[in-house]
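Case study: HTH tetR-type domain-containing protein.
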Amino acid sequence: MGRPSLAGERRGQILRAAAQSVARYGLAGTTQERIAAAAGMSRSHIRHYMGNHDELIDALWDHVITPYFEAMHAALNGHAPQERLPALVDFLFGPQMARNEDDLVIEALISGAMHDLRLRGRIYDSYSRLEREIARTVREAVPGCESAESLQIAYALICLAFGHSTLAPLPFPPSRQAGMKALAVQMLEALRPGEGRAAR
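Here is what the predicted structure looks like once written out:
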């Protein structure tokens, strides 16, 4: 019986090293030499397991963004449609979105995408998917909510949550987070059937 492939283990090791390098040196300062040194491998190993530079960066983006999608799905699973909106707000403004080293990687990749059309498209695909998933959650919880409106709400929620996360290292008082969460709740409550909605 042959030995099990080490490719998955090696890829994980390389991606962790790449994330550390991008967090420390930025995207432009992250070289294959630095990734190889951090991973304890040669440059040829990096290329063997990860492919070319673009393939490595794509895999790194998936490595840092996928856990957020998985955590959001876990936060919403098991809830009835009407209960998913409070669960969504709790997720977007809760400890799962607290800043960590992955945020440095995500921000470096987004910054790098300003000069890389291919990477920009890759990142846009992820955030567009997030927007669609949140919009679908809104429509399922609020019958009669139109697609365009749900997408606008989804985009606003993403901007509120990610903007807050980006500013979290600054010494704003804790009331700012509570204020952003309350604003998100108000925005969603305005979608509920009632006099305010009927009058539009």
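For the exam, be able to explain this: The two ends are 69 Å apart (CA to CA).
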